[in-house]
């Protein structure tokens, strides 16, 4: 659905992009995609077509979301870049209002960072 929504924002798409869309939708809507495939002038059935290849590099993102856990409970989510260091992320997180409520003094908290996943803050109460 995300692909369909992004395609709808485009003014036009190429016939090749349209074929790929039909191939991806075929397992979910086989009858209509088969009909549209034939209307494009394709002789063989869509199920005989070769599944589209993907470029793994395009699936990687340098920005990702990590969860901020405070005493084991998810309190916030933050987008971070893979270039940011652990200290930079800690600094940004400590500025958030939702975190300030629970972490009054940084010296009384222990930070456990799992890169790309979560920053866990354990407070000493």
Topology of helices and strands:
Elements: H1 2-9, H2 15-25, H3 30-39, H4 56-59, E1 63-70, E2 73-81, H5 86-94, H6 97-102, E3 109-114, E4 118-123
Parallel strand pairs: 1-4
Antiparallel strand pairs: 1-2, 3-4
Plain-language structure description:
With 125 residues, this protein is α+β, with helices and mostly antiparallel strands. It folds into two domains: 2-55, no CATH class; 63-123, Ubiquitin-like (UB roll), CATH 3.10.20. It is 38% helix and 23% strand. The chain is built from six helices and four strands. The chain has helices at residues 2-9, 15-25, 30-39, 56-59, 86-94, 97-102; strands at 63-70, 73-81, 109-114, 118-123. It has a four-stranded mixed β-sheet with strand order 2-1-4-3. Helix 2 runs antiparallel to helix 3. The longest helix is centred in the N-terminal third of the chain and has 11 residues, at 15-25. It starts with a helix and ends with a strand.
């Amino acid at each position: 659905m995300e692909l369909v929504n992004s395609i709808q924002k485009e003014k036009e798409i190429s016939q090749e992009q349209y074929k790929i869309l039909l191939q991806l939708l075929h397992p979910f809507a086989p009858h209509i995609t088969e009909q549209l495939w034939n209307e494009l002038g394709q002789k063989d059935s869509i199920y005989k077509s070769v599944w589209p290849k993907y470029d793994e590099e395009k699936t990687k993102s340098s920005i990702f979301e990590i969860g901020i856990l405070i005493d084991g409970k998810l309190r916030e989510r933050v987008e971070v870049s893979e270039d940011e260091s652990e200290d930079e992320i800690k600094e940004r997180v400590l500025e958030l209002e939702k975190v300030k409520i629970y972490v009054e003094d940084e010296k009384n908290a222990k930070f456990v960072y799992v890169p790309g996943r979560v920053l866990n803050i354990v407070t000493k109460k």
